[in-house]
Specification:
alpha/beta, 6-stranded mixed β-sheet, 4-stranded parallel β-sheet
Length: about 425
Amino acid sequence: MMTPNVGGGVRFLSRNFDKPAQMSIDGAMKRGAYEMFKRAVTMKPEDVTNLVKASGLRGHGGAGFSAGMKWSFVPKDKFPRYVCVNADESEPGTCKDRLILEYDPHLMLEGALICAWAVQAERIYVYVRGEYFYPWTVVEKAIADAAAKGFIGKNILGTGWSCSVHMATGAGQYICGEETGLIESLEGKKGWPRLKPPYYPAAVGLWGKPTIVNNVETLSFVPRILEVGAEKFAAMGSPKNGGTGLFSLSGCVKNCGVYEIPMGTPLSTLIYDLGGGLCEDRKLKAVIPGGSSSHILTADECGNLKLDFESVAAAGSMLGSAAVMVIDETVSIPRLTLWMARFYAHESCGQCTPCREGTGWMVRLVKRILEGKGRKRDLDELYEIADNIDGKTICALGQAVAWPTKSYVKKFRHEFEALVKE
């Protein structure tokens, strides 16, 4: 078996990634798989939710919302209920959930089952991005094996509770990583996000029923929380950011890869101690801390930055999917802007006019600047277009293109101006 590219100071979530036969249910059960699920079904569902809430577990897919709080929003009198595992890992720079799916699928599945017990859901849907062919086959077998062992199906472990698990695939559309776009896709429709409110999935989700949507990493932490307890898990991280996190490190660093580190670890530790520093020991220019949709931070802003949701937000960006992209002095920010704008223009679902029209307009403007045909007023126009998209779309794809663009133009305007010829 190929060894996964995971490193870091801790191996908590990822401790079994390199163990033999961890993908098989027998190999996983030798190392404790489904023991925490067995414990969970002896507890009251609301006690499981409260435990996850007390642990400080945040969503590791983007927004960083409290996982336990999200579970508690399910209406008490509305049935049936569903759990959706968001395995549509589509944020550029992010490559952590795939490792869980490939190397420890039963950990994700156990977490999803514990979540389903906590909210008393009758069905789990694992939504895998279209390009993840091999992860799909691994998870598909894991589901079949778990059902054969009695962890999925009718009257699970003699509790009287039944829950089935189903798989679905997207077609590689970025927008289906947004929870309501995912739900629309599951229902067989275009992956167009829904308005929130009123369509908050915990209350009005799949087929209008209460639905919990969590990403792969978030659910995979749940068995570990039951194992060590909420207090110990919370203490592993920083205040309001319990546990560890998988960080996808890419860009101009010597050792790219996925690193598991405690929440609140200094950015410098990730880049220099674990990542080996910048390629050819060049000078750090900037960092994108949470995937391509986050604001860029200059080298000065990264000085004492800690990697948790509050600290990165206080620095003017967001931790998002914890995809840390390192940029050195050789990188052109205008070219980076074009790369980013092209991606979001291609991935816009077309539902909202500001996003549909604005992203293409931005691409044309940046291309003109890079070709030496730009005007100084184009820089203000680029910022204005991004600002007119920001907050004026149904889903967050608008912000995903607007936020980085505005930060690129604002913080590195001199690079754009150098390309403008009056």
